[in-house]
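Input record (one chain):
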Amino acid sequence: MEEEIKQIIAEAKVAIAQVPEKELQVTLARYIGRKSKLTEILKSLGNLEINQRKIIGDLANRAKADIEAAFNERRLEIANQKQVDSMHRDVTLPGIKTETGHLSPITSINQELLDALIELGFEVVEGPEAELELNNFDLLNIPPDHPARDEWDTFWLKKGKNSKTSTLLRTHTSPVQIRYMQTHKPPIRIAAPGRTFRYEAEDATHSSVFSQMEGLMVDEKISVANLKAVIIHFVRKILGEDKQVRFRPSFFPFTEPSFEVDVWFNDQWLELMGCGMVNPQVLRNVGIDPEKYSGFAFGVGVERLAMLKHNIKDIRLFLSGDLRFIEQF
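The corresponding structure, as predicted from the sequence alone:
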């Protein structure tokens, strides 16, 4: 596997050094994107021995950094060549400056979160945005008369006779966990990114369309210690290795016990996300024996993380399309 990583680096550097500008981003994705060989290696770390996992994980992360450096070097080379070429152009001819695209802060944070979880052996999965009421509520231990439903203001697409026929725009990404557990047996280790929708008034801190990242791990002998280790790992990956993280008791119908996670940021404790051990009833609902298996789940708002990291005060800016905002990143 070490030789394979070295081969990937060599191939990537050769490819990046030769491609034209319009193919540069695609070439980068081919070597470090979600479907790349390097990402597949990171996904397989969970199958390795602990000592080997650290060695290969470090090599893969360094390989990613080397490939990104080659990409930035090539991009600078192209920009410099453009500047040289411009000196020989006929400036009397009409022309339109080409705008160069770049990643939004949401996309960047999403990728950082996925990278932090993939290196722990998590697999990335996705699900539909239009979901059954059954998956969005009932199988997550939120029946029709449960008071917890009051926390979700739902966009209904079709009100059927029961939850198996009623459809809605998902209010969280947890239905992805339900769908995955229905078709896969433990051990399970997944990250589920995606957009969610809630029918509510929009202001500086609330949006009817926002992104979430959920994580789920189910196996034998999973404990709160495992939950805390994973969350502390990826929070510090995003916000800094020196960040303090604390867990407060809370309530969610699909986890028991449940916790709110706070991070010490800008000299104050800020609420970041919710998490907990998967409620045994949820495991039963998807055909997993809670006497044999246990697990944890967590969900974080991607915009909230981006707002903390970049000191953004208004969540509505992410969907505004305002170039003055987008071009800052």
